[in-house]
Amino acid sequence: MQEADIKFLEDSFKKYYFEHFDLIRVPERTFEREFGYQKFNSGMTRHISIKDDKELHLLFMQNIPSDVYCSNAYYSFPNLPMNEKDWKEADLIFDIDAKDLNLSCRENHTVSICNECKQVSKISEHCLKCNSTKIEKKSLPCKNCIDSSKTEVSKLSEILIDDLAIDQENIHVYFSGNEGFHVYVHGSQFQQIGSRERSELADYIMFNGIIPETFGMKKFKPNRSSFPDFNEKGWRGRFSKQVFSSKSKRSKIISELLVNGYSSFQKTLDNVSENIGVKIDPNVTMDIHRIFRLPGSINSKSGLRDIRIVEGTHGDSPQRAIGSLARPTVARTPLTNAPSTTGRRQIARTRRVNVLIAVRAYRPNGPTGNSPVRQGGETVTLR
């Protein structure tokens, strides 16, 4: 990036944050979180401790970051190296991004940019001008991208509330400022579970590890009484509603499934899994040391703010809030014509911590309607 471009961006970002710092969402328990930032054309700076909003504002003014991040984890010593921070707990965070949804529209608004000669072309694995393979793909989401992401957020919110018994007031949905949404869960019974257990939760939410036996189908001598009832919770209940569609059709459809056999049932299961599972990034959910874009800050890739969806509508469920949007409620900054940063975030890989809380829910045959989760000596039922 040219020096003049960097100067323009830094001046614009500084002016924006000076005049609009009130739009930054200062997180709760600020002093227990790790902060980090990235400057234009430079790497990531991490392990920063911030006491309050005044210190956060000072960080913006002194460093003029292109992007600012904050941990979902709480530490005793957030400014120390990772192995010395003394991890306490972490909010659950889910990342839903249009690029992960296998949408056909993506081809129409994705381009390849050569990092060698800066040639821009349609999607390609090598530069059509200099033949370099150092290609970076850029995309601007269309309405279909956002609408498809919203659908996934609604499905996720339903599972969090109905299956995991999370209070809807503790679920906050943010537009990422780019191509999707971040879903934050604060103050839940899952705050202190580790990476392994969060991976189990991600599997459950994504509908991973499904087998016919979980839903009552067996290779030999299947019994219709083993099939899920229409009002069951969890995976079995979602399968029941998806396949039977109504209580009155349940008996007839079970008879058809039994006649068609095990292999046919597996195909049915594969077909409905797309509608039952949620397309989240499991690596984000299981990472208990990751830092995330600070809500209210600018995403330098797009010039848009990371903003909470339907702020001020306390009491609305996440499904209702998301469903009511024709398109995401995002505020464009004065930087919409600014070039995006070429720097890449260099985030350290998460360390796997020793797991003190054993969660082996939904195994070995996948989750049932009321699978217990061991947490800190207590049993939490996933309903």
| Total beta strands | 17
> How many alpha or pi helices?
9
Radius of gyration: 23 Å
Summing up helix and strand content along with how strands pair, one would put the structural category as alpha+beta
* Second CATH tier, the architecture of the largest domain: Alpha-Beta Complex
Q: Could you give the order of strands across the largest sheet?
A: 2-1-3-12
Give the biggest sheet: 4 strands, antiparallel
- Termini gap: 52 Å
In terms of DSSP E residues, the strand content is 15-25%
How would you portray this structure in words?
The protein is of the alpha+beta class and 383 residues long. The protein folds into two domains: 3-102 and 140-207 and 279-382, DNA primase, PRIM domain; 212-276, no CATH class. The chain contains nine helices and 17 strands. It has helices at 3-19, 53-63, 143-162, 195-206, 234-244, 247-260, 262-276, 282-286, 318-323, and strands at residues 34-38, 44-49, 67-71, 73-75, 87-90, 92-97, 110-114, 120-122, 135-139, 171-175, 180-185, 291-293, 298-299, 304-305, 307-308, 371-375, 378-382. The strands form six sheets. The protein has a four-stranded antiparallel beta sheet, with no helix packed on it. A hairpin with a 5-residue loop joins strand 1 and strand 2 (44-49). The protein is globular and about 70 Å long. The termini are far apart. The model is unreliable at 311-383 (pLDDT under 50).
